[in-house]
From TrEMBL:
This is Peptide chain release factor N(5)-glutamine methyltransferase. CDD domains: AdoMet_MTases. GO terms for biological process: methylation. The keyword Cell membrane does not apply.
């Protein structure tokens, strides 16, 4: 027995009532992540614009778009292979025209690809080095790019299920996770908080006033992740529990 799950073997996993194609670069969607989708649907206004960071299979934004037909979304992932799965899933569930897919690290591709707020449509994925393009536009400072963005460049909601397992713990995970889920989507750094530091310190630059950030967390990270958002100036920071009674989502309000 290798420990490979049935979903990995057949290449598809159900999430939020929808089937999602998987590949070697995507996590298997877990039922506990459905809380993040539930909360997002409650926080995203009619006709709202969503940003998903570290999208993987695209299960989070696709589930949201499938249930909110007037919404649009941008999804970012460092893995071009993961974005291939997300694009296939978006097409399968009829939301491809409302979902833009960008390769890169966290907020970086937003600045590189849409400095003036132009909408980005689903397109052929690039696998080249994004940093080269950033270097070409180095004469425009990050501050200038933020100042020049139109309202279309800001989001009504940011969501993320980032890597949050500490590096030392990854090797101790169950075989079906350790050996088959992509390490890039599991390892959150020495303390498991590296992605949250990026999101907490940069999210406000991309949010409309009154918008929210919702992030999935590990069961023991509620206090630490909440502190990061409070330190970054967010309000109404709260930890929400899943159906098992475990801390699962941190929400933070950008006023």
């Amino acid at each position: 027995m290798t420990g490979e799950s049935v979903a990995r073997i057949i290449g598809i996993r159900e999430f939020y009532g929808l089937g999602f194609t998987l590949n070697a670069a995507t996590l298997e969607p877990r039922p506990e992540t459905e809380l993040l989708v539930d909360m997002a649907l409650g926080a995203l206004p009619a006709g709202g614009r969503l940003l998903d960071l570290g999208t993987g299979s695209g299960c989070i934004p696709i589930a949201i778009l499938a249930n909110q037909p007037d919404a649009t979304a941008v999804a970012v992932d460092l893995s071009a292979l993961a974005l291939e799965a997300a694009q296939a899933n978006a097409i399968s569930h009829g939301v491809a025209t409302r979902l833009s897919l960008l390769p890169g690290s966290w907020f970086e591709p937003l600045t590189n690809d849409s400095p003036h707020g132009e909408p980005v449509q689903v397109r052929k994925l690039r696998t080249g080095n994004q940093r080269g393009r950033a270097a070409d536009s180095a004469t425009t400072s990050s501050f200038d790019k933020l100042r020049m963005r139109s309202d279309a460049a800001f989001f009504d909601l940011i969501v993320s299920n980032p890597p949050y397992i500490t590096s030392a713990v990854v090797e101790t995970l169950a075989p079906e996770v350790r050996d088959f889920d992509p390490r890039l989507a599991l390892d959150g750094g020495p303390d498991g908080l590296a992605p949250y530091r990026v999101i907490a310190t940069q999210a406000a630059n991309w949010l409309k006033p009154g918008a929210w950030v919702l992030v999935e967390i590990g069961y023991d990270q509620g206090a630490a992740v909440s502190a990061l958002f409070l330190e970054a100036g967010f309000e109404d920071v709260a930890v929400h529990r899943d159906l098992n009674g475990l801390d699962r989502v941190v929400g933070a309000h950008h006023l």
